[in-house]
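Can anyone check this?
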Amino acid sequence: MNDTNPPPTPAEIAALRREIAALRRGYRATLRAEIATLRAEIAAEIKTITTPAPPSPFDDLLTVPEAAEFLQVKQQTVYVYLNRGTIRGNNTGRRVYITRAELIRYMKGLPHTETG
């Protein structure tokens, strides 16, 4: 017995080629859609990573140790500046907060501005 199949006819070959081409087009379309989705997801992720958080109103409030580090002086020096009125701070309980703008004003040698 001979288990070999007869060779396909030219029409069968053409039909198989069309079927393979259709499958390839389908896979390509699916892959393109998946790639587009992944690109969008990656772009969104990159945007969240590279977009800085909006500044908080508390970002500009510094404690005495932070102000000392900002001015590159000792904490005691900051307390001396506060007692003399050289820089202004806000007392909240036992803590003193100083705005970054106040420290920059002091560093530039500008006078205090009167606020309402």
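Reply from J.R.: I decoded it. DSSP finds four helices and three strands in the chain.
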